[in-house]
Amino acid sequence: MKRVALSVALPLLFALLALAAIIYVTGPGWSVGGGEAGSGPQVPRAPAPPLGSLAIPVEGVTRAALVNGWRVAPSSRHGHHAIDIPAPVGTPVLAAADGRIEKLNDGESSGTAIYERSRDGGTIYVYAHLDHYAPALSEGQAVHAGQVIAAVGVSGDAEAAPPHLHFEVHRMAPGEAWWQGRGVNPYPLLKGAG
To answer: In terms of pLDDT, which residue wins out, 1 or 112?
Structure first.
């Protein structure tokens, strides 16, 4: 009898521990669908930019050439919450919208990266795996859609073939810092409806 109880109790205990780990990692209000990803409680956030409202952030790339690379997984630590736009190393990277450079960062996975906050403060645009920043680009600098801000590269954990810009969009809640926010699929914001 004790063996039967133990054989039932142990798997149940492991299942509860696994559930607790998922809630700890993703937060109590995680989202796994609908083109958004992020952790933490559901809080009021800025609306996503309108479909097709962003400039293509790589010079010479057309809307028709874009491919949806967004993949959502139950944990915000997995999946791919961005669009990768292939281009040769050194191709100019353009600001997708008017805003202000919030952070110039060199991270292990993102490599050389730029975090741009929209003029209204409600969106962060992330440009990652860059080769280098535009000359004299600095934190706090205002930028305009279509302005050259960097060059495509293979920094961070980017695979060298093909080189690409990793581009993310995050909807922000009031007071959230550049590394926070809830990811939203950038593909329809760049591609547009239809």
So the answer is: 112
- E strands in 62-161: 83-86, 92-94, 99-107, 111-118, 123-133, 142-143, 148-152
Using CA atoms, how far apart are residues 126 and 21, in angstroms rounded to an integer? 28
- Number of structural domains in the chain: 1
Task: Please identify which residue in the block is written with the tokens 């930028």.
Answer: 143
Helix (H) or strand (E) segment spanning residue 157: none
Whole-angstrom distance, CA of residue 16 vs CA of residue 111: 37
Cα dist from 64 to 18, 61, 147, 166, 188, whole Å: 42, 8, 21, 18, 12
For the segment 110-138, what is each residue's pLDDT rounded down to a tens digit? Answer: 889 999 999 999 999 999 999 999 999 99
For 100-111, give the secondary structure using H, E and C.
EEEEEEEECCCE
The CATH number of the domain holding residue 153 is: 2.70.70.10
Decide if 187 is inside a domain: yes
Rounded Cα gap, residues 158 and 50, in angstroms: 29
Q: Look-up: residue for tokens 């292990």?
A: 108
Could you give the residue ranges of the DSSP H alpha helices within the chain?
2-26, 186-191
Among the ranges given (10-14, 56-60, 141-145), the one the predictor scored with the smallest mean pLDDT: 10-14
